[in-house]
Amino acid sequence: MTAGVAALLGEAPGPADGLRLFCFPYAGGNAAGYRELRRAAPAGLRVCPVELPGRGRRRGEAPCTSMAALVASLADSLRELLDRPYALFGHSLGGLVAYEVAAELRDRGAPLPEHLFLSAVAAPQWSRGRPDRPVPTAEELKTELAAIGGTPPELLENEEIMALALPVLRADHSVLAGYRYRRRPPLPLPVTVFGGESDRVAPPEVLSGWREHSDRPVPVRLFPGDHFFLDTATADLMRAVEHGLGLLRPVR
């Protein structure tokens, strides 16, 4: 296992992997956020949570503050893992990263994913802020986290945990604020979009814009819950992924 794979996944890919699902975390999140999705996966589908710099087992590295740099690094590291069928999944910021990684791999002539799953994220043509916007203060970030849910109040009040989390959150904020969509031809692969029925961060009406980013129909599937339906509807979400990959009968 090379250093790139060790940093990205923390483990060697399995020799019997049928299909790999690379999962990119939401802003401030890490690979552990996909623990339950991994447990819900059927035999033959290997969920591979991707660890980004500055968090989890890569907390000793400086976090990326640029989407272009992050995507180039991920495409480099993934290259040796594309020796068998794979798909990409991203939640919130991770969805935008997943889309950009798929586009970068196409530009490089690399094998394309079997499917791109985008969860709780607006289409890339939607405005996401200004690069000159001041970086939020610690209190502003904590207020934002409390508003969108997904972070227990006791963690928000834990100074030690927040001291570790805030630099990553600031870096992810910079990635989003500095992101500028570059129009490209639609991706030549299936895309499925997931959303939460009561998500105020990426409400259902901003999800349909993804339909212009694939050369085939893009279904939008909504689940009960807010921005973190990833944690509350995990089993149903995995069944929808299996269906998208042709591993299940149609979801009713």
Total count of domains: 1
SSE sequence, one letter per element: HEHEHEHEHHHEEHH
The CATH class is Alpha Beta
Overall 3D form: globular
Structure explained in plain terms:
By secondary structure, the protein is an alpha/beta fold. It has one domain (3-244): Alpha/Beta hydrolase fold, catalytic domain (Rossmann fold, 3-Layer(aba) Sandwich), CATH 3.40.50.1820. It is built from nine helices and six strands. Strands 2-1-3-4-5-6 form a six-stranded parallel sheet. Strand 1 (19-24), helix 2 and strand 2 (45-49) form a beta-alpha-beta unit. The longest helix has 19 residues, at 159-177. The relative contact order is 0.15. The model has no long low-confidence stretch (mean pLDDT 86).
Quick description:
The protein has 252 residues and is of the alpha/beta class.
